Amino acid sequence: MRRKENSLPFFIVLFVSSILIILFGSLGIFNGLVSLLNKGIALPKYAVLSVLTPKNVIEKKVSDLTTENIRLSKLLSERERILLENKALKDQFAVTSPSSQSLVPARVIGYPGFVPGVTTPEYLVIDKGKNQNINTGDTAVLGNNLVGRVINSYDDFSKVELVTNEKSSFTAKIGGDESGISGVIKGKGNNEMFLDNVLLTKNLKKDSTVLTKGDKNEKGFGYPPDLVIGKIVSIEKKPSDLFQKANVKTFIDFPNLTYVFILK
Amino acid sequence: MILTFTLIAILVSTTITTIPIYIPILLFSVVIIPKSNALLLAFITGVLVDILTFGRIGISSLYFVSLLFIALSYERKLETETPYFMFIFCFLGALGYLWVQGVRFAVVQAALISAITFLAFLTYKSRNLRPSLR
Questions:
Q1: Which residues of A touch B14 (CB under 8 A)?
Q2: Where are the beta strands (DSSP E) in A47-144?
Q3: Which of A185, A232, A176 has the alpha carbon at shortest distance from A206?
Q4: Which helix (H) or strand (E) holds A23?
Q5: What are phi and psi of A195, to 5 degrees?
Q6: Is the CB of A50 inside 8 Å of chain B's CB atoms?
Q7: Which residue pairs, CB below 8 angstroms and at least 24 apart, start in A150-154?
Q8: How far apart are the first and last CA of chain A?
């Protein structure tokens, strides 16, 4: 026969201890202890799981997790695309010129002929075309920086020739210069441009901003004025030449361009 | 030995199942070991379960200590060392605990563990084993 003992005092002590633990636990005092114990018990838990869980249950769980992982990766990729689009739109509409009412956003979906590390992009393909009122000759910008012009427009896609393309040539001026220095911007390929046909008497300065002068014809082809092309990085001036030249570097990172805006 | 069984039950219950295997062991301890030791075991079991399930520490120990105290209180009035008492108390105890924890299919799990407890206690009674708390 078991000796009768009064368990009430012991119960009260443990009951009150439990309440105190609940109160102290809500303050986060035991967080370190919980982490430590769970780290210590991780290996035995894993051993129990491996021994007692049927193989097909584990395989199903792995399969379910893999499927879920793929689904979440797609969502993440979509989210990143939306964030980039949002940022591009915010950046574009933060500038006052060109007017935001005349801009059509377009996503860059291809770089024909571009091989990273080997070649530089000369063209872009965007996801807007005639169906979205994009026509040959339209200007592509990013912020107030000039990207290039649409040279081919299809139903839902268009091809944009970048300003650094060897075939690109248009008039330009030096920004903020009252003497009106102007010249011709020509693409050199390989992500480079130069400002040519500047009179020797004109005083070109390094780091000056080069802007479009505006060369739209009666059909509407050409670039509007005052779009940023880039900045002068070096000057070539020989007394024996008729004109002086300057190498111009664009502010845009063409290989990593994701969005452009078409001026209408 | 009962401590070993309790620790194994805690490990299994917090790893691969939600069935509270430790509740029948705690009820067994009421029969087998001194009352104060049983209550202490219930307290420690509750704290460990809460830690390993990342629950609010103290809730399970409060429940287990109260459950065992109620079981001990019935010692004078009812024959507690019977499989039927064990079955009913285990069922009610497990059901209450699972309901507090918000576990699904609480009735099924409580019935299952109670049935196992009934059979285990029958076996114990027939063999009259008396392990001690180490």
A1: 45
A2: 103-110, 123-126, 139-142
A3: A232
A4: helix A8-26
A5: -95, 115
A6: no
A7: A150/A262, A151/A123, A153/A129, A154/A129, A154/A130
A8: 99
Predicted confidence (pLDDT) per residue in A6-32, tens digit: 778 888 999 999 999 998 888 877 777
Does the CB of B24 have a partner CB in chain A at under 8 Å? no
b/e A74-84 (16+ beta carbons within 10 angstroms → b): eeeeeeeeeee
Give the gap in angstroms from C-alpha B86 to the nearest C-alpha of chain A: 18
pLDDT digits (tens, 9 = 90+) for A50-86: 676 666 667 777 888 888 888 888 888 888 888 888 8
Contact A52 B12 (CB under 8 A): yes
Whether the bond between A105 and the residue before it is cis, its omega within 30 degrees of 0, is no
Q: A37 and B40: CB-CB below 8 Å?
A: no
Cα–Cα distance for residue pair A151/A122, rounded to 1 Å: 12
Chain A CB contacts of B11 below 8 Å? 41, 44-45, 48
